[in-house]
Amino acid sequence: MHLKLRHLEVFHAVMEEGSVSKAADRLYLTQPAISIALSRLEDMLGFPLFHRSKGHFAPRPEAYLLHMDAELSILAVEQFSNRARLIKQGGTGLLRVGAIGAAAFGLMPGLVARYTADNPLVEIDLSVRSSHQISYLVGNGQCDIGLVEAPVAAPSLEAEQFSLPCVCIFPAGSELEAKAQITPADLAQHRLIGIQESNQVDRQLRAVCAGAGFEMRAPVHGFFFAVVRRMVAEGAGIAIVDALNGCLPPQDGVSWRPFTPEIRYDTALIVKAGAELSLPARAFIQMIRDEMQARGKLPDMATV
């Protein structure tokens, strides 16, 4: 049996409209075309669906039994067609993103909100992992996109690097707010919160402090920039963090100033080498690229 969608559409239209003439008008077909389609459907099924009398079609019990199935089949085809159209336009799908803490807390919430507002049918699965774990997931196809710390040396990955400035954050109302920029000498007078000893920002900061003639001492470490910011908000000290997490609106009671000499935080956007990315993935990558390039420079302090 080789049923065609047109057979189901004709059968459904006759059942819904109650007559061949109205079904023909609904489907923009002639009445003979409707009659022929119904006859072919009955031939394929092996039993009649309508009583025919002087041009009138009255549904048999078998027709009522099949009517709902025909309607569901037509709806399924329409859903398939709509879903395919959305996929072609990049409007549906699943996007799997892995991000280190700096990007997960300071970048991704805003990007996801903006992207899903325009693409409500695209599902996004955001995983917060270490750079090593994210690289593994992307390389094995378990994540479509990754944001990790640079550099990236894995041959199974394609990487695009971004460099972010770092700033000094401190509790709002601190005397540091009176300064246009923060120097290593300012750090020596405050309790410093570090990230972790192996973090690239802390490594640069130790070298900067040594160059200024004193040893960097950070009795507290927070691992995530966002956690460190929260510690600063609670008065635990001051910190040097990336611009993603440092240059946020001061609604949590944390202010920031540029730090000199400049310290940079290098990150990379990674995908699996040679992978054919979906339209949603390509669109989301462009959003990440645009935002990271914009964040490569500090905001004008006059607008903060």
TrEMBL record:
Residues 3-60 form the HTH lysR-type domain. It comes from Roseovarius tolerans. It holds the Pfam family HTH_1. The keyword Kinase does not apply. This is Transcriptional regulator, LysR family. Belongs to the LysR transcriptional regulatory family. InterPro entries: LysR_HTH_N, LysR_subst-bd, WH-like_DNA-bd_sf, WH_DNA-bd_sf. One of its GO terms (biological process) is positive regulation of gene expression. One of its GO terms (molecular function) is DNA-binding transcription factor activity. Keywords: DNA-binding, Transcription, Transcription regulation. It comes from the Bacteria.
